[in-house]
Amino acid sequence: MCIISLPSGGHEGGLLSLFDCSLEEDIVSEISFPKRKILLGLVSSFRYDKEMVYMDVANSEAAKLHEAIKAKQLDHDQVVYILGTRNFHQLRETFRCYERNYGIPIKQDIKNCGDADLEKLLKTVISCIDTPEKHFAEVIRNSIVGLGTDEDSLTRAIVTRAEVDLKKVRKSTLTCTKTTSTKM
Q1: pLDDT mean over 49-71
Q2: pTM of the prediction?
């Protein structure tokens, strides 16, 4: 699964003209609950784009995320709201507060919450928010390691990040594979 960051409402016109349905309609028709709830929350809500970070909000929301994880309710409304509406700077600080306050990174704490697909989805979402260049470096690496090349995943990762931060992806790929992406 590949999660990309789109400006609010920016995807709608292009998808409607290409596929005659909205992204939300596609998610509803193709994805089962509870993953549907998370994905709809991510693509349907307004995400504040200001770079402001509020420490009290980060600490409070880290506690809410911790409660949901401990209760094994990864699709809790508060989780969907936090991930769907907060700007990426605020979310990164919330993830740092989570680790400081609970002694474990949020991605690790999500393990064993009962639904492997939902765990994987949330880990991917958190990776894309927290360190998108590292996430896409891993996608690139996984697409070329082993038998054959997963050209679809490789192409999608490179095209998705080409204008945003391919230099950071290349640096992360170098770190992960000890080679540059130009030598791959």
Answers
A1: 95
A2: 0.72
